[in-house]
Amino acid sequence: MFNRAVIFASLPLIASCANPALHSETVMYYQVETGKPYDEVLAELQVAIAEHNFRITGHSRVGKVIRERGAENFPEYDTVQFCNLTLAKTVLEITPHAIAYMPCNVVTYQFQGKTIVRTHLLPEDTDNPALNQFAAEMNPQLKQIVDFAAEQ
């Protein structure tokens, strides 16, 4: 009986030693569809990124490469990564865990006759008020970039 009481009494202590997850936020996405030609969407995406004072750090033409390897009618799939080092420094000083959100990334792909443009948004509901404020300022810019690229 005494052993059982000791075990139950120690359970909260044992549970408090468990490592909490570094990030428990849910990643939210912003997505729009357009009937605009795919290449125009990519060109407008590059313009929008530059107009928001970001630099493109990478562009993966996944669909194109798969077609070049023999999958003749494979649809378009692209990822465009971009960053602003001043903003990157700011958010990393807020929390080093924000590296998980970098660089910013927009994906474009074809689906059911439409072009999809999608980006992940930064969490605005963390337990870090400074990160929440940064995200609240950054997310509208990410949405504007996506909207501009898809706008007809």
Automatic annotation (TrEMBL):
Top-rank taxon, per record: Bacteria
Classification via Pfam families: DUF302
PROSITE patterns membership: PROKAR_LIPOPROTEIN (PS51257)
InterPro entries assigned: DUF302, TT1751-like_sf
Domain DUF302: from-to ranges: 63-119
Protein name: DUF302 domain-containing protein
Source organism: Methylomonas koyamae
Lineage, top ranks: Bacteria, Pseudomonadati, Pseudomonadota, Gammaproteobacteria, Methylococcales
